[in-house]
């Protein structure tokens, strides 16, 4: 869609024509002090709660109350195999085969577990490439892996940086890094969608480049899962990880998803940390058998999982399945383009959108850089009922989420931002 117009009437017309607009009612929208809905643009940080979540969790509380340990086998959704109820929907959201996906642990934990298997440094090839403005947890995790293997974390870490005066990363620069250091690099680990700029990387291109130079390639898709079409299987990536509490609306600190490419599904040579949940399901409770690895991503599980958290994930994935990822991505593109249009219409030289303008190189986040602004601006936005995310030094990140944000939300956001920017 390109023919946008200014004015509230046009926003309301877009909402009337939006086939997904009714999904907003399936979510709890936080209220502002005036009792009206907040304009919630923080789904990239913590997604909102689906109204059905409570009943999914209550079902498990009820089975626990009434059945105790028997719930593992006789619950409505037996806990022993509960995680399997999440696999198909999660796999379709990230574009993977079911054998490639499991939900377990939390994100940074899984990043470490993946590096146990996929970061195998040798004397000559031990370096790790990350993106310049990587999410801090990823950077810390990667540095600690270098140290764990006895390498210097400064010397061993290569940053794929943006150029002077630019925000976005260029593939030519990654190519140069690989031409120069390719045979010293063991692992390329970048965010599928950069958390700061919202740049959605070409996962296939990065993977092919890395593989051509003999590197393992993994992605942190925390800002991509439930936001963009990741198409993980076809990207050829060796592994990926993501959390379920951002775009996947599964509640604070909820569990993480893991992708391990099918080509590694039966590889028993890969080093890994194991636990009883990585062991063959059929014989798990015989307890005295030697270890017998489960094939696929499931073979990386350690523990029996927290069912209450999984129930929240199941609730959310059922909403996603009903809406359909393709429909969501289509609306997301319109919503984000409309947002961009209105911001550009402000004609304010103090604001600059640093997110790519190409709709295929971004998801639903726009990062807006405001000249000479500080945290004060964010406080004013909050006071005006807008929940967005401030990142130092001068960026407001806003994520119009297609499941629960309306075109009217975007219209009101930009109107309020305009008032605040024009204040003296
Ligand atoms: C949100 C996010 C994290 C957070 O990690 P947790 O282990 O869930 O606390 C890590 N990396 C990226 C890229 C993120 O976006």
TrEMBL record:
Q: Answer yes or no on keyword Hydrolase.
A: yes
Give me the reactions it catalyses.
Answer: 3-hydroxy-L-kynurenine + H2O = 3-hydroxyanthranilate + L-alanine + H(+); L-kynurenine + H2O = anthranilate + L-alanine + H(+)
Binding of pyridoxal 5'-phosphate, residues: 107-108, 135-138, 220, 223, 245, 276, 304
> Recorded E.C. number(s)?
3.7.1.3
Keyword field: Hydrolase, Pyridine nucleotide biosynthesis, Pyridoxal phosphate
Q: Which Pfam families match?
A: KYNU_C (PF22580)
What InterPro entries does the record point to?
Kynureninase, PyrdxlP-dep_Trfase, PyrdxlP-dep_Trfase_major, PyrdxlP-dep_Trfase_small
Q: Does the keyword Hydrolase apply?
A: yes
Cofactor(s) annotated in UniProt: pyridoxal 5'-phosphate
Query: GO MF terms on file?
Result: kynureninase activity
Where on the chain is N6-(pyridoxal phosphate)lysine found, per UniProt?
A: 246
The pathway this protein participates in, as annotated, is: Cofactor biosynthesis; NAD(+) biosynthesis; quinolinate from L-kynurenine: step 2/3; Amino-acid degradation; L-kynurenine degradation; L-alanine and anthranilate from L-kynurenine: step 1/1
The protein's role, per its UniProt record: Catalyzes the cleavage of L-kynurenine (L-Kyn) and L-3-hydroxykynurenine (L-3OHKyn) into anthranilic acid (AA) and 3-hydroxyanthranilic acid (3-OHAA), respectively.
Q: State the oligomer form and interacting partners.
A: Homodimer.
Family named by the database record: Belongs to the kynureninase family.
Instruction: Name the HAMAP family on file.
Output: Kynureninase
Q: What is this protein called?
A: Kynureninase
